[in-house]
Amino acid sequence: MSELDHKDKLANVLSASINRRGFMKLIGAGAGLAAGSGLMGGPLMQSAHAAAAPKKGGIIKLAWIDAVDTLDPHFTSSLGSVKILNNVFNGLLKVSYDGKKVSFVPDLAEKWEMPDDKTHVFKLRKGVKFHNGDPCDAAAVKWSLERVKDPAVGSPHAWKFETLAGIDIVDDTTIRMRFSKPYAFLPVALTGSTGRAGTIVSKRAVEQYGKAFGRNPVGTGPFKFAGWRENESITLERNPDYFEPGLPYLDGVQILLIKEPTAAVAAMMAGQVDGMSLSPFQFIPQLKSNPNLKVYGEVEGNYSFVGMNNRRAPFDDPMLRKAVAFAIDRQAIVKQGYFGEAIPAYGPISPPMNGFYDPNMAKTGRGQFLDLKKAMEYRKRSKYQGELNPVYIVSQGFTGSGGSGTRNSQLILPMLEKIGIKPKIELLDRAVWTKRRNGGDFDMYDEAWIADLDPDETIYPEWHSGKPWNFVGYSNPEFDKLISDAQDTLNQATRKKLYDKAEDILMADAPLAVLAHMKVFKILGKRVQGFQYIPVDLMNLHSVWLS
Amino acid sequence: MLYSATTKLLQTLLVLLIVSVASFAFLKLAPGDPVSIMLGSDYSKESYDQLSSELGLNQPVFIQYGKWLADFVRGDWGTSYITNQNIFELTVMQALPVTLTLALLSLLVALLVGIPTGVMAAIYRNTWVDVAATSLAIGGNAFPSFYLGIILIWVFGVDLGWFPVLGFVAPWEDFRQGLWHLALPAITLGAWYVGLVARITRSSLLEVLGQPYILAAKARGEPAWRVVWVHGMRNVLMPLVTVIGLQLGGMLRGAVMTEVVFALPGLGMMITTAVLNREYIVVQAGIMLTGLLFVTVNLAVDQTYQFLDPRLRRR
């Protein structure tokens, strides 16, 4: 197979998310075009800055209502952290958005080639330095990627490099990653944002700080970590040696850690902060009506759902699970649970996954949708007759359960009563909820998977037999095979077919009842300019300036 | 005097010991555990067991307690699992000053508003002034602090734009900015005590104003303000000190809500975060510190009595 064939294959993989000609440019098929920094996201930056010339200086003040656990990218499980990390670190690749499609573009990598379908060669940017002055070269990148994979390190993202057979240093700025089989998910895994596994960290800093690295992060990003006052604020300052010329514009970032969203919204309305990392749905109409604010938000790669415990009665019976899935009125959930800021979900694959998402799922009879007659039929055919009282665990709080766990459960309750199921809702704090979910101690639980970029991310670790987030204990060998095959296939059309079939099986077996695909919001004040919204719950500040 | 001080000290230590045992037991009984939180969604039984043993959480509870107590008394309060920070520094150096400042300012608000209100109500007894003052007092008591906090934020922070609605500036670093930032939280927390102080002041003053020595002072032709503020108030101070002293512990409880609403990095916020993370070791330190504050305040109130009422000094 010629080199170009492989590139073509990879281009196909990514065509879900990137315009093909653009992609060929990016991987350097035309040698003159792939000349590093000027190329990446070039047109996007120009359009963003066309209005006025960016001004240097100033400190942006942001209210952060989502939890920040650690600033070690290889360990965090919180998007509240990822949004900060993305300003301190870089990945080999990053996520870009042109207003229509999400794409993966080189970040620390300058060029990306595939000599064959299991080998990926990355040419790195020259002269990039970590915040502590160490060079970010091939050796540093190799060390960082191997840190994620090393079982002794215990990164929760290690699974993303399960099939990584080895990394070779070709020269100072070139590394070769060898995989045991073709790996369609790799582009996502290598992003420094939601993928996290491809985020490059400083070896010396990790060794120096040990477990405290998460409170003293050292990366290559546009901002350097400057301080963390517990329960109060995190501060970042400009990295004068940042590799994108002229960036960042801001002198620094002050992140105020807020527990009470109402207070953050008030500060936003009063103009006392410049932005909010996220906002609960109920405040959106109010924020939108304020002329001094800009509200960014689109339906992102996510889905909320009710999981049902396949391991024990009564939801070990697929008929009963199907009855639940068809009894739920998703329009009502969108309207009342999400204040209209969402769309109904008929399957787990979401709209931004272009080429995989099927908006007509309900019309064509695929997927799950409200059909009370069907629900009643399934209920009649179920093993368990009479009134049922499953335990429905719900977690309080905005970020938990996709933000609407308590509201959703209260909406779902009367819907299920119509088919003779009266769940007992148990409202738990997040720690207890997590423990019970992980331990399978529930009949139903409410959750959302968010910031996903690829069907693999949204399906594989969640619903494949025995995988880490398959808390309901779902197992179907045919489904497992389909999604494993999809992972090893680089051809887009074949992948689409495999996921369609897998999705049909999953929705028919109904280990979960899907609910909605939600919008995710960023609120910024009028004086904040140059912000590039990316619909994977990111808050990149490198191009932001204050007027 | 020495005897009574020693007895007090022993009593105090006993109280703290009971607090430590009770809080340790309650924490252990609380569902949810730190290991699963720290490991996130994806972990194996091996990594769970390994982390448990690293944290010493697989040992019997009384051994964990004993070890914790021994370390605590020696001043080694341990390191937070989550933040890797020294817990003594986290609680005593960082969080405590914030909470103490908030409590003191709230007390100031309570006294500055509550005493005049109570006095007015007593002097103009059964008039509209009394009704207004009493309503204010009851209102202050009835409003939950998180609700009042949010109302104040919207009215004075958002609509009028007079005060910052969140964030903390240490008054010892920037006095004016600090006070400005703490004004709304202090009013929120102080509101409850305004009611309390006003009610105590009113009822005690009414009692005092009927006494013969007040009549005597009036008969001597002393001005009304002197009669009330000098002769009357001296005798109102005792019940006021008692009640405020007893309620200062409760103020720490109110501080939790206030700190969360206004995003102030005090003890209340720290304990809340630690409870949510099931960080036993931090919660424990927070509770001990709170207990210590509580008994210290009680001791201080005792001493204040002796200062205010010379008769108590003779024993």
UniProtKB/TrEMBL annotation, chain A:
One GO-annotated biological process of the protein: peptide transport
Family annotation (InterPro entries): Peptide/Ni-bd, SBP_5, SBP_5_dom, TAT_signal, TAT_signal_bac_arc
Gene3D superfamilies linked to this entry: Dipeptide-binding Protein, Domain 3 (3.10.105.10), Periplasmic binding protein-like II (3.40.190.10)
A single MF term (Gene Ontology): peptide transmembrane transporter activity
Keyword entries, A-Z: Signal, Transport
Pfam families associated with the record: SBP_bac_5 (PF00496)
Entry-linked PROSITE patterns: TAT
Highest taxon above the source species: Bacteria
Domain Solute-binding protein family: 104-467
Cellular component annotations (GO), alphabetically ordered: ATP-binding cassette (ABC) transporter complex; outer membrane-bounded periplasmic space
Family the entry assigns: Belongs to the bacterial solute-binding protein 5 family.
Protein name according to UniProt: ABC transporter substrate-binding protein
From TrEMBL, chain B:
GO MF, one example: dipeptide transmembrane transporter activity
Localization of this protein: Cell membrane
Membrane topology: Multi-pass membrane protein
SUPFAM superfamilies xrefs: MetI-like (SSF161098)
Source organism: Sulfurimicrobium lacus
TM stretches of this protein: 100-124, 136-158, 178-198, 256-275, 281-301
Subcellular location, principal: membrane
Family recorded in the similarity comment: Belongs to the binding-protein-dependent transport system permease family.
Keyword Transmembrane on entry: yes
InterPro entries the UniProt entry points to: BPD_transp_1_N (IPR045621), MetI-like (IPR000515), MetI-like_sf (IPR035906)
Alphabetized UniProt keyword annotations: Cell membrane, Membrane, Transmembrane, Transmembrane helix, Transport
Pfam families attached to this UniProt entry: BPD_transp_1, BPD_transp_1_N
PANTHER family the record matches: DIPEPTIDE TRANSPORT SYSTEM PERMEASE PROTEIN DPPB-RELATED (PTHR43163)
Record GO cellular component, one term: plasma membrane
Superkingdom per UniProt: Bacteria
Protein name according to UniProt: ABC di/oligopeptide transporter inner membrane subunit
Domain ABC transmembrane type-1 span(s) in chain numbering: 96-301
